[in-house]
Amino acid sequence: MTTPAARVTTLRHEYLPGFVAIDAWPPRLSWIIETSERDYLQAAYQVLVSSAPDLLNGDLWDSGKVQSSASVNVEIGCAQLPPDTLCFWNVRVWGPTGDATPWSETAVFSTGLREPDWHGAWIRYDGEYSREESPSPWFRKAFTLTAAPSRAIVYLGSAGYADLYVNGAKVGDDMLTPATSDMAKRTLYNAYNIAPLLREGANCIGIWASRGWFIETAGSEPLVPPGPRVRVRASIVAAGEPVEIVTDSSWTCSTSCYTTLGEWHFSRFGGERYDASLDRSDWSTPAFDDAAWPSAAIAPSPAPRSDAQACPRNRVSVAIPAVRCDALAEGRFKIDFGTDLTGFIEMQMPAMPAGRVVSMEYADSEGGIYNQVDEFVSGGGEGERFRTMFSFHAFRAVIVAGLPHAPQLSDVTAYLIECDLEPAGSFTCSDDLLNRIHDLHVWTLRCLDLGGHTVDCPHRERLGYGAEGQVPTETAICNLWMPAFYTKWLADWRDAQDSVTGSIPNTAPYRWGGGGPAWGGMLAATAWRLYVYYGDTRILTECAEPMQRYLDYLDTLATDDVVEPFGGKWDFIGDWVPPGRGMDTENWPSHRAASFFTSCYRVYLWQLQEQTATALGDTASASRCHERIESMRPRIHAAFYDPDAQQYVIDEQTYYVMPLLTGVVPDSLVDTVTDRLISRIVDRCDNHIDTGVLGTYFLIEYLQRTGRHDILYALATQTSYPSWGHMLAEGATTCWEQWNGHASHIHASYISLDNWFTQGLCGIRPDPAAPGFERFIIEPHFPANLTHARATYRSPYGLIESGWTRDADRIMLTVTIPPNSTATVHIPDARATTTLDGQSVASVLGASQCDSNAYCLGAGTWVFEREIG
Question: 260 pLDDT exceeds 60?
Answer without folding.
Answer: yes
